[in-house]
Amino acid sequence: MANRLESLFSPESIAVVGASRSERKVGWEILHSLLAYRFRGRVYPVNPRAGSIHSIRAYPSVLDIPDPVELAVIVVPSAHVLQVVEEAGTKGIRALIVITSGFSEVGPKGRQLEEKLEGLVRKHGMVMVGPNCMGVINTHSRVQMDATFSPILPLRGNIAFMTQSGALGVAILQQARNRGVGLSKFVSLGNAADVSLHELIEYLEGDDQTDLILLYIESFGQPREFMPIARRVTKGKPILALKSGRTEAGRRAAASHTGALAGPDVGTQALFEQTGVLRANTIAELFDIGAAFSMQPLPQGRRVAVVTNGGGPGIMAMDAIVGVGMEPAVLSDKTTAYLRARIPEEASPVNPVDLIADADAKRYGLAVGAVLKDPNVDALLVISVPPIVEDEVAVARSIWRAAKKQSKPVVSTFLGRGEQSPGVTELVDHSVPTYLFPESAARALAAMRRYQEYLERDEGTYRRFRVRRKRARAIVETAVQERRTRLHEMEALELLRCYGFRIVRSRLVDNLPEAQAAAEEIGYPVAFKAVHPEILHKTDYGAVVLDIRTRQELDDHHRTLSLRLEKEGFEIKEWMVQEYARGGKETIMGMNLDEKFGPMLVFGLGGIYVEVLNDVVFRLTPLTDADALRMVRGIRSYPILEGVRGEPPSDVAGLAESLQRLSQLVQDFPEIEAVDINPYLVFEKGKGCKVVDARILLTPLERGAR
After folding, report:
1. Contact 699, 485 (CB under 8 A)
2. 24, 220, 577, 614: most buried by Cβ count inside 10 Å?
3. Per-residue confidence (pLDDT) for residue 606, from 0 to 100
4. How far apart are CA 574 and CA 543, in angstroms?
């Protein structure tokens, strides 16, 4: 992977095809950026109508350049791109950056042109970024390549930034420079016709200059390919992503309860949760968190202390810390006694440590040093409201000097000071990230802690259970051959039984006498359900009766249900009699097939928790045993499963195993489009679970299996 992309990031020579003498043209900007950033290799402008550009000899085509060329940056109109690429291939150029637009992003004709472009790249064994991109940057001192049309020259640092939006590229580079954030690499992917996001992440995994990867993502392309790569890379380098398109309408399976629960963004969120990718909601937040990662060590716990010279900002900071899931540190008696003896009487030596408004550099340095030494403190947020009479640079210097003596993360807020103020610049230049408001600082610390916890967590193992796959295959194939898109209810229960699910005792009957016999065999109390292919959710039609205790009750309900459903237009030819399972708690689990992310599993408590509160967790297959357990524990109502008010704990391990079995089932049978197991009863710890009702939908034959 590194060898394939080396010519893209570290070329010895670059041809700018479409270099221009006009300062308003992209071709001029790219050549100017290469020269202004002092590219270490050779640069060749290519323009058939210019003898020289930027006082450098120009050539009519790449074929006229007498020396070898490793990388070509193409800025010619789309109609001429294929000719230029063919010439580049003939010349032996290894890598391309195609800035030109007018390809798949503009419609069918553009897609055809892009397919031809891809074919030429493959034919000549080249590597290409683009088309329709902003360019590539490598700040390494041995390369110093800015092959973009951005007027902002990047700072050198340890952050790689990949973006799928060239339009945002200039804003991203400007924001990075304003925040004092240095970059190792920058890539605008454009249409990603050749080099993909996945490939770049794999390359950056082995890049010694990159410690943190930031992503702006509009589309994953192949998210299931992204998953194993990201899961591996994040164990060595954090990945922080901003994903747009959170509110676009998602495809929903009208016949699937699980599908209705799946909002437009659950696949992305599940992918990030399982791979350890951290998520930002805005570009500003992306850089807020990125700055903290690039400058500070990871917190070893959630306990945060605050040092401030204003009571109000200190209270705001504590609220923000709790709001993002961190904890207020409780300072040791030794620390509070030390501070009490050295700060004014009216100041506060407990968290938040309030040094009061006249705090000078000496007082800040003393407090920051003492608090960071406290074993009860994992991270520190320092707030300064710089008074007119105090030297903010001196305060900033005292903060970073005290912070440098410890290995705990320190972030700061200089209220009322912008990014270019002297105090803020002093801190950032000495690796203390500084924010306009405490909330941003708290979010950055929380993101760092989440990543540390991800590094510490057990990823688990993928289990394969012994199942009756041959019998399961027969059930599915029968339905497919009959061109059915839904398994019969008894088929659905049997399929789950093949994969180790316990099912409540169930009998399918045709008439009342058979129902009576089934109830006697199963034993009262029983549940009685009408079965009809058009009744998907029985409770919507009142087609189910629970806790029937006598034969007379069964007779009465049979008559009542028959009449009611007949009025609704349903002729009921089949009925189901089931044991009425008592005890346990209702849960729901299932799968919805997403056309991009593949099978998405869902789990939650039943009843109002899913219907009203939408308290569910989604994950992508395959699941490890640790994934499954985290999934169960991830719902907000999980304490109910642990046992509240004297109730015994539920069989959480049984639920986690069931999710793994369901994961294996939907992976073994790509014909399955949706699964609803609702309700799925979980009993006391060690007593397992039982399926009460199940619905399994198959992919229509004309669409084919995934």
Report:
1. yes
2. 577
3. 85
4. 12
Which residues are registered as beta bridge partners of 527? 578
The pair of three-digit structure tokens given for residue 201, joined into one six-digit string: 């992440």
List of residues 6+ apart from 105 with CB closer than 8 A: 132, 191
Q: Are 458 and 626 in contact (CB under 8 A)?
A: yes
**Residues 394-406 as b or e (16 or more Cβ within 10 Å = b):** bbbbbbbebbeeb
pLDDT reading at 259 higher than 80: no
H-helix or E-strand containing 591?
A: strand 585-594
Cα–Cα distance, 341 to 360 (Å, whole number): 17
CATH top-level class of 2-210: alpha beta
Rounded Cα distance between 77 and 397, Å, is 52
pLDDT band per the 50, 70, 90 thresholds, residue 705? low
pLDDT digits (tens, 9 = 90+) for 201-254: 999 999 999 999 999 988 777 888 889 999 999 999 999 999 887 654 333 333
The CATH number of the structural domain formed by 297-456 is: 3.40.50.261
CA distance 301 to 304: 8
Does the model's pTM come out above 0.90?
no
Say which residues have a Cβ less than 8 Å from residue 164's Cβ, sequence separation at least 6.
188, 189, 190, 192, 197, 216, 217, 218, 219
Q: Is 18 helix (H, G, I), strand (E, B) or coil?
A: coil
Non-local (6+) Cβ contacts of 272 within 8 A are 241, 278, 279
CA count, 13 A, side-chain hemisphere, 558: 21
Q: Are 230 and 277 in contact (CB under 8 A)?
A: yes
Q: Assess contact for 215 and 241: CB atoms under 8 A.
A: yes
* Numbered ranges of CATH 3.40.50.261 in the chain: 297-456
Q: Which residues contact 220 (CB under 8 A, 6 or more apart)?
A: 197, 226, 268, 271, 596
Q: What share of the chain is helix, strand, coil (3-state, %, to 5)?
A: 40, 20, 40
Kindly report the CATH class assigned to 505-580: alpha beta
In degrees and rounded to multiples of 5, residue 545 shows phi and psi of: -130, 130
Start-end of CATH 3.40.50.720 domains in the chain: 2-210
d(CA 502, CA 517): 23
Q: What is the pLDDT of residues 409-447, one digit of tens each?
A: 999 999 877 777 899 999 999 999 999 999 999 999 999
Tokens of 414: 């200089």
Distance from C-alpha of 537 to C-alpha of 497, rounded to nearest angstrom: 21
- State the Cα torsion 599-601-602-603 to the nearest 10°: 170
Cα angle at 19 between 16 and 21, to 5 degrees? 155
Which residue has 């390549």 as its token pair?
A: 145
User: What is residue 251's predicted lDDT score, i.e. its pLDDT?
Assistant: 35
CA atoms of 160 and 276, how far apart (whole Å): 17
pLDDT digits over 536-579, tens only? 777 778 889 999 999 999 999 999 999 989 888 888 999 999 99
Instruction: Write the DSSP symbol of residue 330.
Output: -
Please, what is the average pLDDT of the chain?
92
Q: Which two tokens stand for residue 423?
A: 């105090």
pLDDT: is 607 or 31 the higher one? 31
